[in-house]
Design brief:
Number of strands: 9
Distance between the termini: 20 Å
Strand content: 15-25%
Number of helices: 9
Low-confidence stretches: 1-11
Helix content: 25-40%
Strand order of the largest sheet: 2-1-5-6
């Protein structure tokens, strides 16, 4: 066996631990079930949930969005959906980042496509939203993108955020966490919009949903969870 072959054997790969932070509760088996099979063998995810210490009653009583809140929709450990205000979750997310770095994670990724202010970190911190917006702006070529968000209350903030990025959107609400028969209806409502591509704008949307959208609309779909998988492989895969 050549030396180059020895260096490329699985045992010689440098293992890379990535902190994966959900704004809900961990483990996010719905997300990691799609992401982990796509990751290079040397990459492992260590999960942290901002809402791990709390039960649903406490969250609903104390973390509900206020009138001026940015609305975030996420998943509990039992697969139920909760709606929270961004201002309540930020210190909890910051705590998760600090813990991940203390635990030896070489980088941290937020499993959320929401807009976040500057967060403290010593290692690389991957926040999907600005990365996705940058890619979309180049790919859309002045045509609108079709956008799915989990809740109707998020439509005005989505329109504001994408306007700031100078991206035209046609937005519909479809929860990734609740049983729904609305996918075909939402897809049909987007068919006449001359879309450049589709963005299901939440980490909760699955590869299965992406495939359904591509079948229904014959339009490219950028799925955040697989986009982030590809980025992690590019940065840390070996």
């Amino acid at each position: 066996m050549k030396k180059s072959d020895i260096n490329n054997t699985p045992a010689s790969r440098t293992q890379t631990k990535i902190g994966a932070i959900t704004i809900g509760q961990s483990p996010r088996t719905d997300i990691t079930g799609d992401i982990c099979p796509l990751l290079a063998p040397n990459i492992t995810l260590q999960e942290y949930g901002a809402l791990d210490p709390f039960d649903a009653d406490y969250i609903n009583q104390n973390f509900a969005p206020g009138p001026d809140s940015s609305v975030l929709v996420t998943r509990m450990r039992d697969a139920s959906q909760v709606i929270i205000g961004e201002e309540h979750i930020l210190p909890l997310v910051q705590s998760c980042i600090t813990r991940a770095e203390a635990d030896g994670c070489q980088a941290t990724v937020l499993l959320c496509t929401g807009k976040f202010p500057k967060l403290k970190h010593q290692k690389m911190l991957i926040i999907p939203q600005p990365l996705i917006h940058s890619v979309l702006k180049k790919l859309a070529d002045d045509r609108p993108i079709g956008l799915l968000v989990p809740d109707e209350s998020q439509i005005p903030q989505a329109e504001s955020w994408f306007s700031e990025s100078d991206i035209q959107i046609k937005v519909r609400a479809l929860s990734p966490y609740l049983e729904s028969t609305l996918l075909e209806e939402r897809a049909r409502s987007l068919q006449q919009e001359n879309l450049s591509l589709i963005l299901p704008d939440c980490m909760g949307y699955s590869i299965t949903l992406k495939n359904q959208l591509q079948t229904l609309l014959k339009t490219p779909v950028l799925l955040p969870r697989t986009f982030i998988s590809s980025l992690l492989n590019e940065l840390y895969g070996s």
